[in-house]
Automatic annotation (TrEMBL):
UniProt keywords, alphabetically: Metal-binding, Oxidoreductase, PQQ
Protein's UniProt name: Alcohol dehydrogenase
Organism: Streptomyces canarius
Family in the record: Belongs to the bacterial PQQ dehydrogenase family.
SMART domains referenced in this protein's UniProt entry, alphabetically: PQQ (SM00564)
InterPro entries with a match to the protein in the record: PQQ_b-propeller_rpt, PQQ_MeOH/EtOH_DH, PQQ_rpt_dom, Quinoprotein_ADH-like_sf, Quinoprotein_DH_CS
Required cofactor names: pyrroloquinoline quinone
Length: 569
């Protein structure tokens, strides 16, 4: 059959979604505030507290701001200053899949914010007026295990960096939102994706892969800021013959589909020149018989030389994980008695403190009430007690696969010397189901049902010795990151929509605002023209069935709400 292409009508080019945003005329170019952001400024980010220059606010991961205009005495007067409505458009941004999980970045009065489905916005941080938007075309059939999400952007040298669900890292012009470069670093056909906020270190932007539930091999990658040229790759599962390979079966390819993805942003110490990153679960998640051994470097904290991409030391939190206890949680850097330490609250329910120069264990303590999967002694001995080891036989354990703390972040105040942890006290039942590995098909190895009753949550304050100083209790698990400030305030959102301010020293609830949708993001704070603001993305969803299935049908929302004290009349 001969086809006469002259009979076809030219459909034209796709419309740039940014041109349909209804922006204020002439407001499509941002001031060049990011041009002066370089490695030195990010190193000293806390010296300019009016800005939030990097994902955690600073390289140490503390999520602490010295700003104290809003404090324990006046926070009760805090009110909404402006709201940005992101909307819910997008092919795979369905009501049951997307979630607003980002941490807003602010540079000299301009905010940079990412959303699900390839969205990035530049906003006036004082008024909320949109300056520009970028929409990346994400294929409809990308394999995503746990929701259509993105956790934020990075900025430096006049560019905004972010990753997309189809495993790409992009650089945008920070003034216009136009694409500068675009690089692929994962194989979407194999089930790889990307969700984390990039981290700028020196002249590189560092990103990690997602997709452990599909049986992929995790990795970190570094790209040149200016050109996007690939600098190094660090695989987080060793191939045969490499150190750690003896912890995988000698025959077969279990290592090649071993997981250990790095899907949460790392922290960095310029003095050790090490990047501290948590790695994800092994694959399959719950069927350990097909991957006998400890399965390094899954469920581990790894210290990576930032210049070479080589792993210098590791500490495995859950050897041979069969509960889906990723160790992707943040590594908070702090000092105690002159010693350089790292604090990590793991999904398995334990708080690990390590010497960050060499990975030596300092102490381990539980931070949640119910832990039944096993036990870890203070000297680091791990004993598994309950796990899905027989085909078709249900097993119940605490914490469930979302963990005693999910990916959402704890905060640390150098003023109070306390950690503030969003705790989830929820169990789950797993029933092992052996399945053959097939590329890009979920590779869980079990059916899982998370409890919808008998659950609890809290914001708990711990010192570096693991002693709990106070606990603010909640009926539901706490599923959002905390933020602590120089005003001795801890900000924390609830799954039911409340945004709270607690006294950082006592845990007393001082202020609350109902945001209309659940919280699963990372609030940040900044100052413009002498006025402090607190910004929180609100949009419930994502993998809600994994951490709070009882609220799977709750209103989603898609707003950034920004608070401040009332302006003087």
């Amino acid at each position: 059959m001969t086809v006469d292409y002259a009979d076809y009508v030219d459909a034209g080019e796709a419309v740039d979604q940014g041109s349909l945003s209804g922006k204020v005329a002439g407001g499509d170019v941002a001031p060049p505030v990011v041009a002066g952001v370089d490695y030195e400024r990010i190193l000293n980010a806390r010296q300019e507290p009016q800005n939030w220059l990097t994902y955690y606010g600073a390289y140490d991961g503390q999520r602490y701001s010295p700003l104290d205009q809003i404090n324990t005495e006046n926070v009760k007067r805090m009110v909404p200053a402006w709201v940005f409505q992101a909307g819910t458009t997008g092919l795979i941004a369905g009501a049951s899949t997307y979630s607003f999980e980002a941490a807003p970045i602010v540079v000299d009065g301009v905010m940079f914010l990412s959303g699900w489905d390839g969205w990035v916005w530049a906003l006036d941080a004082k008024t909320g007026v949109e300056i520009w938007r970028y929409k990346h075309a994400v294929p409809f059939d990308v394999s995503l295990c746990c929701g259509n999400v993105n956790r934020g952007v990075a900025v430096a040298q006049g560019k905004v960096f972010f990753v997309t669900a189809n495993a790409r890292v992009l650089a945008l012009d920070a003034t216009t939102g136009k694409r500068v470069w675009d690089k692929t670093y994962g194989d979407v056909r194999a089930g790889e994706s990307a969700t984390l906020a990039p981290l700028v270190v020196k002249n590189m932007v560092i990103v990690g892969s997602s997709g452990g539930e599909f049986g992929v091999r995790g990795h970190l990658d570094a790209f040149a800021l200016e050109t996007g040229e690939h600098q190094w790759r660090c695989y987080t599962v060793p191939k045969p013959g490499e150190p750690g390979s003896e912890t995988w079966p000698a025959d077969g390819e279990a290592w090649a589909r071993g997981g250990a993805n790095c899907w949460i942003t790392g922290t960095f110490d310029p003095e050790t020149n090490l990047l501290y990153v948590g790695t994800g679960n092994p694959a399959p998640d719950f069927d350990g018989e097909v991957r006998e051994g400890d399965n390094l470097f899954t469920d581990s904290i790894i210290a990576v030389d930032v210049d070479s991409g080589q792993i210098r030391w590791h500490y495995q939190c859950t050897p041979h994980d069969v509960w889906d206890y990723d160790s992707i949680g943040e590594c908070i850097l702090f000092e105690q008695d002159g010693r350089k330490l790292l604090g990590h609250f793991d999904k398995n329910g334990y708080f690990f403190v390590l010497d960050r120069t060499n990975g030596e264990r300092v102490r381990i303590t539980p931070f949640v009430d119910r832990i039944t999967w096993g036990a870890i002694t203070r000297d680091g001995q791990v004993t598994a007690k309950v796990y899905p080891d027989k085909e078709g036989e249900p097993v119940h354990f605490y914490p469930g696969p979302a963990g005693a703390k999910e990916w959402t972040h704890a905060a640390y105040s150098p003023k109070t010397e306390l950690f503030y942890v969003p705790v989830q006290d929820t169990g789950a039942t797993a029933t092992r189901r052996r399945r053959e590995f097939k590329e890009s098909i979920p590779y869980w190895g079990a059916g899982v049902q998370v409890d919808i009753e008998d659950m609890a949550g809290s914001i708990s304050a711990f010192d570096a010795d693991g002693e709990e100083k106070w606990r603010w209790r909640n009926e539901l698990p706490m599923c959002a990151s905390t933020l602590v400030t120089g005003g001795d305030l801890v900000f924390a959102g609830e799954a039911s929509g409340e945004f709270n301010a607690l006294d950082a020293r006592t845990g007393e609830l001082l202020w609350q605002f109902q945001c209309g949708s659940g919280h699963h993001s990372s609030p940040t704070t900044y100052m413009v023209d002498g006025r402090q603001y607190v910004a929180v993305p609100v949009g419930w969803g994502g993998w809600a069935e994994g951490f709070l299935p009882g609220m799977l049908g709750a209103g989603h929302g898609s707003a950034l709400i920004v608070f401040a004290l009332p302006e003087p009349s």
